[in-house]
Amino acid sequence: NVSVLKEIEELKKENKLFHSTITEMRKDIDLLKQSERKRLKEGRE
């Protein structure tokens, strides 16, 4: 059944996109936390 296979491929692509978006968001959040910590440290000194 070709159409089902195509649908599965599409879903996989979407899933990858979704996954990479989440990964990017996590990276951004980590970077924000890091810069926040740096600011707090510099503020104390």
Observed structural traits:
45 residues, mainly alpha, 1 helix
How would you describe what is shown here?
This protein is 96% helix and 0% strand. It is mostly helical and 45 residues long.
In a nutshell, what does this entry contain?
With 45 residues, the chain is an all-alpha fold. The protein has one helix at 2-44. 96% of the residues lie in helices and 0% in strands.
Class from helix and strand fractions: mainly alpha
Broad shape: rod-shaped
| Helix content range | over 70%
Q: Helical region count? A: 1
Count of DSSP E strands? Answer: 0
Could you report the average pLDDT, rounded to the nearest whole number? 93
Euclidean distance between termini CA atoms: 67 Å
Helix-strand string: H
List the helices and strands and how they pair.
Layout: H1 2-44
